[in-house]
């Protein structure tokens, strides 16, 4: 599981209910281009963004909300679906937010929350680096269209190196900060495993029982079980027509093991992107090895046909009791495991954009 401010495993309840919170403090703000505008304060959860509070700005874009955080959590403030400010809050903080409501994510600043300021530092560096790389790529692409793929690969390597070094520096200076969890998405889990271990030990001591830290600890345990660079455990299961297809038979190809099921809503919603990914890279050496957690053959076959899946599909129809599910430590789906040409694990739990970038890099080596 890839941990970031948008994908950390947690469960939650609405903070507006329950015992009285003795730490209630305020969030005040001044936003440009926001007269009489509704501002939403929400908590980030695996079930979506949960409403916590809202306010209407005055004619000058000023507003005030109650900070209902009672433990260290990720929140967001938004003026629209695409205009979002990400916050890391704890009980007892009084903070002030400023920015342009028309471009909140790129312009907001915060005082009164050290964790949020650290998160902003990470996000601003990422944005600046991405913008710079994109401008460079656009200029080279226009001048040398035939070299755009090789130029893109070089710039991607430079980006990966620069953002990794920045993230390493941030983490090593902030081993007890929750924001360091967000920075781990830029690390190499094989090269930087010792950093993951140190961060896990530090956070477990500093933030005992925090749900984000507990989720991170589970990820580190998973990394220990199947570390990057280790051989992918063999899978040899029947296809829908009963033919056994082994994972090892695909050696020499870049392989995405895709754990999914016909009954899994998020899996089905993600499938069109997987279809496009396969169309784009199958002739360049990519194969997808779908492992279904279904238990009903007809439902499995129907989903394959309905979602236009043309890559390898296997299943023992044992749902969560399937041997590969247990060997690979799969606790949620959809879940992907990326395998290199030598059958070794390269990455796990990437989102579709991250998966595409990683596949491009492997195909170019």
What's a concise summary of this model?
The protein contains ten helices and 15 strands.
Q: Can you walk me through this structure?
A:
The chain is α+β, with helices and mostly antiparallel strands and 365 residues long. The protein has helices at 104-107, 114-143, 148-173, 179-183, 193-206, 211-225, 265-281, 297-306, 323-327, 352-363; strands at 25-32, 38-45, 48-56, 62-67, 73-80, 83-89, 95-100, 109-111, 236-238, 244-246, 254-260, 286-292, 312-314, 335-339, 345-348. It has a five-stranded mixed β-sheet, with helices on one face. The chain has a four-stranded mixed β-sheet with strand order 4-1-7-8. Strands 3-2-5-6 form a four-stranded antiparallel β-sheet. Helix 2 (114-143) runs antiparallel to helix 3 and helix 5 runs antiparallel to helix 6 (211-225). The chain is globular and about 65 Å long.
């Amino acid at each position: 599981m890839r941990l970031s401010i948008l994908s950390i495993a947690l469960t939650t309840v609405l903070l507006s209910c329950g015992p009285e919170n003795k730490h209630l403090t305020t969030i005040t703000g001044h936003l440009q281009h926001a007269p009489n505008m509704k501002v939403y304060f929400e908590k980030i959860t695996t079930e979506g963004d949960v409403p916590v509070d809202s306010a209407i700005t005055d004619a000058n874009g000023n507003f005030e909300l109650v900070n209902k955080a009672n433990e260290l959590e990720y929140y967001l403030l938004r003026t629209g679906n695409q205009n979002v400010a990400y916050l890391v809050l704890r009980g007892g903080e009084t903070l002030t937010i400023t920015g342009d409501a028309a471009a909140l994510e790129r312009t907001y600043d915060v005082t009164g929350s050290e964790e949020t300021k650290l998160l902003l530092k990470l996000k601003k560096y990422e944005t600046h680096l991405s913008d710079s790389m994109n401008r460079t790529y656009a200029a080279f692409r226009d001048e040398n269209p035939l070299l755009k793929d090789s130029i893109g690969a070089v710039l991607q390597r430079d980006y990966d190196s620069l953002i990794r070094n920045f993230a390493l520096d941030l983490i090593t200076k902030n081993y007890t900060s929750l924001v360091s969890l967000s920075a781990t998405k830029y690390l190499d889990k094989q090269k930087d495993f010792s950093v993951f271990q140190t961060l896990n030990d530090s956070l477990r001591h500093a933030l005992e029982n925090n749900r984000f830290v507990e989720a991170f600890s589970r990820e580190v345990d998973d990394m220990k079980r199947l570390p990057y660079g280790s051989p992918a455990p063999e899978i040899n299961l029947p296809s829908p027509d009963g033919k056994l297809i082994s994972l090892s038979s695909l050696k020499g190809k870049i392989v995405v093991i895709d754990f999914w099921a016909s009954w899994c809503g998020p899996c089905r919603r993600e499938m069109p992107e997987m279809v496009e990914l396969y169309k784009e890279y199958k002739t360049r050496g990519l194969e997808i090895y779908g492992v279904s957690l279904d238990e009903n053959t007809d439902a499995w076959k129907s989903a394959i046909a309905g979602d236009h899946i043309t890559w390898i599909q296997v299943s023992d129809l044992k749902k969560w009791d399937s041997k590969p599910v247990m060997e690979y430590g799969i606790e949620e789906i959809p879940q992907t495991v990326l395998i290199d040409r030598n059958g070794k694990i390269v990455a796990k739990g990437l989102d579709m954009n991250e998966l595409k970038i990683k596949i491009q890099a492997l195909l170019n080596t």
